[in-house]
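<instruction>
Derive structure tokens from the sequence
<entry> Chain with its tokenised backbone below:
===
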Amino acid sequence: MKYMLVIPTKRLKQALIIGTALFLAIMFAYSERKAIQTFADRDPTPQAIYKVDTKEKKIALTFDISWGEERAEPILDILKQKNAKATIFLSSAWSQRHQDLVQRIKEDGFEIGSHGHKHDFYTKYSDEEIRRQIRRADAILTQMTGKKPTLIRLPNGDIDKRVLKIAHELGYTVIQWDTDSQDWTNPGKEAIIHNVVSKAHPGDIVLMHASDSAKETHLALPVIIDKLRAMGYELVTVSELLTGTDVKSEEVR
């Protein structure tokens, strides 16, 4: 005996409607998730760069200059004698008072970044004052060097999400550091050398100073350069370090 399964037409239509509705709901949810993800990818929260992820033995020495009359020139002399590349973050207020040194930094081929105008804690400023300080430095450094800086290290490394967002809106990449020489504490020549050489790694960004507050940097620098090179490191600018590598940033609160 043969049996035939008979499904009432009304029930079949209901099943088709329910199935179609479920399918459309799933597709809608998926497309919404993709749209949200795409939007997030297009509009990421700006982040500060501390190092880059590379297997190449490249390292960037960076120097902040915000005040003083004595320490910048000896450091520039050492870098030139050693044929060592570096990125130098200049306070525009200092730059106005030392136009001859700024011109030398440019002519010697060092990369110039902004260190803001007033050397202060920018996180305590209003949004408009943060913009004013960055824009003022931008105008002064661009006029003095003939080139708009695109890298910025905020004074004291003082940043939060608000400062990052404003700097990003003004066309800047915020550069921090992964290795701190602690030269600003004047711990002694050997300590500065140890602080840099013992922590050096591929893609590292090293913080140093050429302001008068750092009284021992010029003593440690020749040894640091020689030791890094003996370890197989190539000294590059921050921009060169960033090219073709995966940036390693950290969340800023």
Observations:
- The chain has two domains: 9-43, 48-250.
- Strands lie at 48-53, 58-65, 87-90, 111-114, 151-152, 173-174, 179-180, 204-209, 234-235, 246-250.
- The mean pLDDT is 87.
